Amino acid sequence: MKPRGYIFDLDGTVYLGEHPVPGADAAIRALRARGDRVLFLSNKPIARREDYVSKLRRMGIPAKLGEVINSSLVTARYFQRICRSGEKVLVVGEEPIQEELLKHGIWLTEEPVEARYVLLSWDRGFTYDKLDRVFQAWKRGAEIVASNPDRTCPVDGGELPDTAALIGAVEAVTGQRVDRVVGKPSPLMAQAALRQLGMKAAACWMVGDRLETDIRMARENGMGSALVLTGISTRREAERSPWQPDHILDSIAGVPDLKSR
Amino acid sequence: MKPRGYIFDLDGTVYLGEHPVPGADAAIRALRARGDRVLFLSNKPIARREDYVSKLRRMGIPAKLGEVINSSLVTARYFQRICRSGEKVLVVGEEPIQEELLKHGIWLTEEPVEARYVLLSWDRGFTYDKLDRVFQAWKRGAEIVASNPDRTCPVDGGELPDTAALIGAVEAVTGQRVDRVVGKPSPLMAQAALRQLGMKAAACWMVGDRLETDIRMARENGMGSALVLTGISTRREAERSPWQPDHILDSIAGVPDLKSR
């Protein structure tokens, strides 16, 4: 049997806040033991990839930095590709995504007049002043990129408003859609994952808890898909969704038993 | 000739920031001299009605408090009607609208768990924390009301993000439309203006610079309408708009010469 690739969402799939989903460690160990490849793919832009590696290890799931891709990394690579020399990005976002951009050689600015691009990302320090800077940059022609489209992020005891809040605010004020959203379900994320795994989409499963990001990305990019019911989307939502998963699992524990489509 | 009612928008129509539109004072004087009635109707929720009276007087336009209606006043009256005893409102908005609610006997709260309603309004002190409070109140069943739908507010040297930003952020996170938007083009504003004037809609002109608020309210509530080109909407936008004004004027100076439809 040829090895397959398993791409796992993190929050709501592998763990909930600080608590691993029961059986997550055993499932991932079983996949690795039989020669399959594992990758973790998160839209969450407020943590560092190194933090995810540590967190997974704390939960008994060995992981290397190269096995974790988040929207911050893919966003930084995207700007690396589109920014010409001297072009600057005005960022609304937290430290980790700003660091990732700097590591990739992207020039940042806080001045709307200097911004060729704006990056919108989840920012718990978001203020009206930041919104106004984005708007003034847009009026001067800046293109607007968002790190991820998530409405909310699950946390212990509930959920918090995510980057969608910022996208919604900006779109309402400009009267236009933002130019690009990088995170899942964007093909940029799918391509980054496949390149890292060194596999074709048809040989991969995407396992996640969100229909509109995880399952949609899988469907639109030729991967197999499994929805787990430990996070945001419910079985009932799956039944009515335009993005039908190939399988619905109670949790990640069932992943080693997935049968090819 | 029977007297007619003239309902004027303020920002972008009567003045721009601190500068009166040339001829505004003479036009309004001419209407009053011939026995017509005048009312000022603003969506802007970050100033007091008393401030508008002072500002108009500074510009040589006599006005009484009863001739100025803003979205804060109509919002406060709306809550007065819908709030049952003990029901509280969580407000995202500036001092003037909070004061107007308190003057009308509305109980306010900052605790999501106590909020039966949420009011979204233009707030230059808007933060992520406030957004999260709104979201947590909504999750507990609070209804969401917005003071006005404006995308931006014209100011000297440009425009600033208005209440639409907040509505957009909240709708993106909840995945639902807010329950009610009070300001123009809502019929609540039209009714408040007509009641104050003591006139029927057919006897009134609405004069404003925004197609989607001023002209739309006039069309949907049976008033005559004149778009002035001193503010946000352009002649080109008017040509493509679903809300066609009866007349397009270079400025408020032409209002005394409006001919009945």
UniProtKB/TrEMBL annotation, chains A, B:
Q: Give the matching Gene3D superfamilies.
A: HAD superfamily/HAD-like
- Gene Ontology cellular-component annotations: cytoplasm
Q: Which GO terms describe its molecular function?
A: phosphatase activity
A Pfam family annotated for this chain is Hydrolase_6
NCBIfam families referenced in this protein's UniProt entry, alphabetically = HAD-SF-IIA
Q: What is this protein called?
A: Arabinose operon protein AraL/NagD protein
Organism the protein comes from: Kroppenstedtia eburnea
Taxonomy-wise, where does this protein's organism fall, top ranks first? Bacteria, Bacillati, Bacillota, Bacilli, Bacillales
